[in-house]
Write a structure and sequence with these properties.
The chain is 54% helix and 14% strand. It is α/β, with parallel strands linked by helices. The chain has a 5-stranded parallel beta sheet with strand order 2-3-1-4-5, sandwiched between helices. Helix 1 crosses helix 8, helix 3 packs across helix 4 and helix 4 runs parallel beside helix 5. It is globular.
């Protein structure tokens, strides 16, 4: 099976769905943020603070290039990955790009207690999240081969929807 790249805003469910696809279908999982943090020896907020966002974005692109060698892998992308067209090209080379959509209210519920999301610090309210979602919507739409709404669904329902729709491509 080719790769599945999960894109979407922070808190849309990418990590949860990646793990569920692993459990249900035996796919390998690559958590981009976690792998980058491990390789750099620091958290994502620390990378942003010490080396800057452009440095971090370059690491994302390099990792996507590296992942082209793999198959049957779910790639849980950081929320900003689809903002670079080069990243979208790399994701599509060996996979299907799935946009997990969630409402601003759902996202706030999921991320309100997390401090691992530097772009959300000080902006944990529905209005700010809705504005950020709108700012990324066009890039997410352009990147996505499939769009899956995650509001009110459990992980199994979402996984079945993804696999079913990929089979119809």
């Amino acid at each position: 099976m080719k790769n599945i790249a999960l894109i979407g805003f922070m808190g849309a469910g990418k990590s949860t769905i990646a793990e569920a696809l692993h459990q249900k279908y035996g796919m390998q999982v690559v958590e981009m943020d976690a792998l980058i943090a491990k390789r750099e020896g620091m958290s994502i907020p620390e990378i942003f603070a010490q080396k800057g966002e452009p440095y971090f974005r370059d690491l994302e692109t390099a990792l996507l290039v590296e992942l082209q060698e793999q198959e049957n892998t779910v790639i849980s992308c950081g929320g900003g990955v689809p903002m670079r067209e080069r990243n979208v090209e790399e994701m599509r080379k060996n996979g299907t790009v799935v946009w997990l959509q969630a409402s601003a209210e759902t996202i706030l519920n999921r991320v309100k207690h997390s401090h691992e999301r530097p772009l959300l610090e000080g902006k944990k309210n529905v209005e700010a999240i809705a504005g950020m979602l709108e700012g990324r919507r066009e890039k997410y739409e352009a990147a996505a081969d499939l769009v899956i709404r995650t509001d009110g669904k459990d992980a199994e329902q979402i996984c079945e929807e993804i696999i079913s729709q990929i089979g119809q491509e």
